[in-house]
Amino acid sequence: MIKKHLILLVILGLFINACTPDENTNNQYQGTYIGNVDFYMNGIYGNTTSKTINLTTASTAGSFLMINSIFLSNTCNISGNNLDIPASTVGSASGIEIVEHGTGTFSGNTLTIEFYQDQVNSTTNAVVASGKWTGTLIKQ
To answer: Rounded to whole angstroms, how far apart are CA atoms 92 and 2?
Structure first.
């Protein structure tokens, strides 16, 4: 009788564990990604250079710290296989605000990115100039 109760408790424990959400599902994306990234200014190709993005989890679920050699934004959100950098103003000078935003997609050990940095007129909200970075980086 005791063996049956123990077996039932073990089975019940397995079911409970299987139904508990994994808080660390996005931890698989932590790490350093390196790859060639193309830069465009106002739609005109500028150059291709090696860039690095280092992702570490932040205190908020789905939020990551993003240390990178591409631009100033240093946080992003990851949901499923998608990386999102919400638009945010990262600086301003002489009536121009610098707004950055971007997206990325994870597939295996690769991260494909499309990041933007827009120079926006503070008075009219018109985009004065726009930089774009696209590329595929490999997790190291």
So the answer is: 71
d(CA 50, CA 30): 19
Q: Name the CATH topology of 24-139.
A: Lipocalin (2.40.128)
pLDDT digits (tens, 9 = 90+) for 20-46: 444 445 689 999 999 999 999 999 999
Amino acid at 13: G
Q: Note the pTM of the prediction, 2 decimals.
A: 0.78
Q: Distance between CA 49 and CA 71 in Å, rounded?
A: 13
Domain boundaries, the chain: 24-139
DSSP calls for 64-116: EEEEESS-S--EEEEETTEEEEEEEEEEEETTEEEEEEEEEEEETTEEEEEEE
